[in-house]
Amino acid sequence: MFWFFRDRQSRSRSSSRPTASDARCADPSISAVLPDQGQLNIPLADIQAQDEIGRTSIEQGRYLARQDRWTELSDLMRAADDARDTAPDGMPIAELLAFGARADVVLAVEHALSDAKALSEIDVLSGISELEDEMRAHSGDPMIALVVALAHIDLAWAWRGTTTEATLPSLHRSRCAAHFDRAATIFPTCRTAAPDSPIIAAAGCALLAGQRKANTRVAYEYERLIELDPHNQRHMRAMGTHLLPRWFGSYDELEVQALRMAARTQELWGAGGYTWVQFDAITLDEEACARLDVDYFVEGLHDILRQRPDQQTVNLLSAYCSITIQKGSGQNAKADQVRGQIREAANWLIRDHLTELHPLIWAHAANGFNNSVRISSPERFAARGQRDALRAIADLFRDELRSGLDVTFTPKGLRLSGH
Questions:
Q1: 156 and 104 Cβ atoms separated by less than 8 Å
Q2: Which of 68, 102, 190, 249 would bridge 151 by S-S if both were Cys, CB 3.0 to 4.6 A apart?
Q3: Nearest to 159 by CA among 178, 147, 175
C-alpha cells in the first residue's frame, strides 16, 4: 500500500552499529530472560547501510519536486519502474521517488489535521493545487499525473484518520471521499499512457479502498499487478488483506485466490504464492486463520526461502512465525492450533537459516508489520525489536543454553560450543 511510506523518512539510524554482539552485553534489559550458563551471540545487520538506498530515493524525489525538475523526476521514475528496481527491503524505487515528490504536501496536511490550531491557520488545499498545476503543465506525462493521484490517495487517508466510521466528522468524510474521487479521475490517463507500469497498477489497487462496491474486481486488479511484478511479495500480501470480508472479499474467495496465485506463480515461488496471499490476512482475521491450509502454508515458507535465501527474508519469516502470528491468541481454538503449527516453523527458520539480526523487522513484527505506525524514536523502536528477537531466540535455545553451551550465529551458520 502506498501509505506504507509515512514512517520511512522519520527513521534515522545511529551512525555506528556493532557488527557482532553478545546478547547479554547488547542490551542489559534483556539479561533476566536469558539463562545463566550459556551465551547467545548474534551479529547485528548494518541497518543504516541497508536503508541508504531507500532514504536517498525519497530525498531525491523531494529535492527534484522542490526544484521544479519534474521532467527529470519523471524520467527517473519511469526508468526505475521499467527496471523493477527496489531498495534492499523490497520497496520499489519508483514508489520511493514518488513519495518524496509529494511528501511536503502530504505531511503538511497530516500535521495540520493533528493540530486543530494548525488546521485553522493553513490552506490544506494549497499544496495539492500546486501539484495539480504541475500535472497540467506536463500534460500527458503519466508519472507526474501518478504523483498527483497518489497525493490525493494519501490525503484521503489523512482525512479518514483512525477513528471509527460512526464518529468520523462529516467534513472529514466528505474530504476523504473527494480526494479518492479526484484520484480515480486522474488515474485512467496514467493507465492509458503506461499500461505495463507496475507502479501505476499498484496505484489502481490502492484506489480500491475508496471504492466500496460489491462488484469491485479486487482479485483482477491484483492479478494484473502481480503479473507485471511477480517478484514483489508485497502485492500478494496486500491482495490477501483486501480479500478479507472486512474489505471486499470472503473467506472462500481468499482461499481460492491464494491457491490460484500459487498456481500462477509456481515457477517463481512454488507454494509461496499461497503463503504470501495468506500472510497478513491470517494475522488480521481469526476465521481466516482457522480456515488456513497450514501444511501448504508451511510448504510455501520453504519454497520462499529457496527463492529468497537472503537475511532480510529470513528475518521477516522468522519474526512472523515467532511473534506476529501469535497476536490474537486465545480467541479461536482452531486458529490457535494453526498458530502453533506456524510457530514451529520458527525452529528450522532460525536454526537453519538465520545468520544475522535485523532489529527493525522484529520491531515491526510486534505491530503485525503495520508500517504506518508512528515511530517517535527509531533507536528505541529498534532496541525493542532486538529485545523481542533475543527473547524468541533464547527461548528456542533454552535447553542448549541451560546446559552451558554458547549459541553463536555466524555467516556460515549456527555454532554450538562449550566453555
A1: no
A2: 102
A3: 175
Please determine, for residue 294, whether its predicted confidence score (pLDDT) is greater than 90.
yes
Strands 406-410 and 413-417: antiparallel
2, 64, 110, 123 from 174: Cα distances, Å: 21, 32, 16, 17
In angstroms, rounded to a whole number, what is the distance separating the alpha carbons of residues 237 and 315? 17
Distances from the Cα of 375 to the Cα of 88, 203, 386, angstroms: 20, 25, 15
Edge-to-edge order in the sheet of strand 413-417: 21-22, 40-42, 406-410, 413-417
pTM of the entire predicted model: 0.86
What one-character DSSP code corresponds to residue 197?
-
Q: CA–CA separation, 259 vs 223, rounded Å?
A: 13
The residue type of 289 is C
Asked whether 326 and 349 are in contact (CB, 8 A), the reply is no
pLDDT at 50 (0 to 100): 60
Domain ranges within the chain, ordered by starting residue: 1-7+20-45+310-419, 49-194, 212-308
Q: Strand, helix or coil at 42?
A: strand
Q: What is the pLDDT of residue 377?
A: 65
Report the pLDDT value the prediction gives residue 8, as an integer from 0 to 100: 29
Counting residues of the chain whose pLDDT is more than 90, the rounded percentage is 69
Q: Residue 168 CB: number of other CB atoms within 10 A?
A: 16
In whole angstroms, give the CA distance from residue 223 to residue 201: 10
The model's pLDDT over 34-50, given as tens digits with 9 standing for 90+, comes to 545 789 999 998 766 66
Please write the tens of the pLDDT for every residue from 151-164: 999 999 999 988 87
Give the separation between CA 18 and CA 28, rounded to whole angstroms. 15
- Using CA atoms, how far apart are residues 353 and 412, in angstroms rounded to an integer? 10
